[in-house]
Amino acid sequence: MTELYHFLEMGVWLGFAAIGFAVLFNVPQRTLPVIWLVGALGGITKLVILHFGGNIILASLAGATLVGFLSIPAAHSKHAPPLVFSIPAVIPMVPGAFAYRMMLGLIRLAGDTHADSYSDILNSAVSNGLKTLFILLSLAVGVAIPMLVTRKESAKKMKIIK
User: What pTM, to 2 d.p., does this model score?
Assistant: First the structure.
């Protein structure tokens, strides 16, 4: 039961992070509650997959894909482009920690490094850099694919289950 509360709490904070980026991008105020909800659901999806042992790249792809699919009917209901909802909602899933560790590794390599630890630091920096790259690619693909798949189908024709 405490895991459920943890996921809900993290969803609340991820939703607020999405609202923060939405305000930074100066989106219309009428879209903020939906951006909060889409950001929270996408983040919770990623966290649940990670909790059950999923890969972080696939978890990011799943969260971003959910954000992409939820952005399409939200765009129709709030009369705004889907990117207004998807971009701020997916930014909290950007892998800042991996990018930071990669940069620290590169800085250590540029400094005085003993030959013994050079290969370990290089492997760590490359690993973190590749994780960052693939997570960013999965976020971009996850947001773009739903919009490309439903492009021929008008958002007005989509039914929302209530």
Answer: 0.85
